[in-house]
Amino acid sequence: MQSTENAVYVVGHRNPDTDSVCSAIAYAQLKNRLGAANVRPARAGEINAETAFVLQHFGVPVPELLTDAAGLELVLVDHNETGQALPHIDRAHVLEIWEHHRLGDLHLPEPIVIHCEPVGATATLIGEQFFVHDVVPDRAMAGILLASILSDTVGFRSPTTSEKDHVVAARLQPLAGIDIDGFAGELRRIRTAGVEHAGAADLIRQDFKAFRIGGLQMGIAQVEVANAAALAHRKPEVLREMRALRDALGLSEVVLMVTDLGAEGSDLWVTGDRRDVIEKAFGPVTDDAVYVPGCMSRKKQVVPRLEEALAGAEPEHSS
Ligand code: MN
Ligand code: MN
Question: Where are the alpha helices (H) located in 84-195, listed in sequence order?
Fold first, then answer.
């Protein structure tokens, strides 16, 4: 056994999703199989119901929980922004980054491996690395990587889906031994089932990410529903919780994407003092919400439009 001092942890973002947890597990295993026995998977928060199902289905243990990055040697997967990383990420030694989001604000004092590619899931890049190194993933690794691709791309329906996601998934499928459509449907059922019964605080926080956009700190959360009616009756309660979170974190705006997997669009529920920015990006806000047809991706369709809306705009003085 290696001592903890020599350990390198592979870890995803806070409020982890299936891609963050499973990409960390699989990349640590690839490193192990390539001879680096000291690399271990970790997670930066409690796992969600979908991830719990995926790990249990393939018999993979829940990785170790990290709560502070100070002094650790880390490989980051599925994130590269301070606001989404473990606390004190500035005091960690980041060795590598494997990513499919925009480049963030991490200060990296020396050259490191950064692989950032606009594919549908970090798991696609990790799966590709197995094949690049001629390491055949076992059933469990193939399974959790494939599940992560299906999760992040919403069964290949998200506009973030790339050709490479299909190619890597097709190579993983026979190794994982699952039916892709059936498994994607099961994941979707689990993701949407929890929503109606979840507490308002959990709804906001489970998939919450903080962004620095055009000089503003914004929080953007996402929940997925099977149809628009699923969450409508919870709106006043959820908006109250969003305001509380905005105050607690000192954010300009908190946006909740209520993504309708049936209609393939998102109702954006908004709270904050920069409604002008929201309206410039997405159109008129009515009853604290604006519906955006075809919008399913935070990284590809929401963050860039907010960036654009804020580009060149003078900061407003709110009274
Ligand atoms: Mn993620
Ligand atoms: Mn991801």
Answer: 122-132, 139-152, 163-176, 180-193
- 82, 92 Cβ separation under 8 angstroms: no
Which ligand number lies closest to the CA of residue 21? 1
Tens digit of pLDDT per residue, the chain (319 long)?
444 568 999 999 999 999 999 999 999 999 999 999 999 999 999 999 999 999 999 999 999 999 999 999 999 999 999 999 999 999 999 999 999 999 989 989 999 999 999 999 999 999 999 999 999 999 999 999 999 999 999 999 999 999 999 999 999 999 999 999 999 999 999 999 888 888 999 999 989 999 999 889 999 999 999 988 889 999 999 999 999 999 999 999 999 999 999 899 999 999 999 999 999 999 999 999 999 999 999 999 999 999 999 996 555 444 3
- Cα distance between residue 180 and residue 161, in whole Å: 15
Q: CA nearest 224: which of 253, 195, 244?
A: 195
For the CA of 13, the nearest ligand: 1
Which element (helix H / strand E) includes 75? strand 73-77
Query: Which residues place a Cβ less than 5 A from the ion ligand 1?
Result: 17, 19-20, 78
Residue 290 CA to ligand 1 center (angstroms) comes to 24
User: What's the whole-model pTM score?
Assistant: 0.92
The rounded Å distance from CA 16 to ligand 1 centre is: 6
Q: How many Å lie between the centroid of ligand 1 and the Cα of residue 100? A: 9
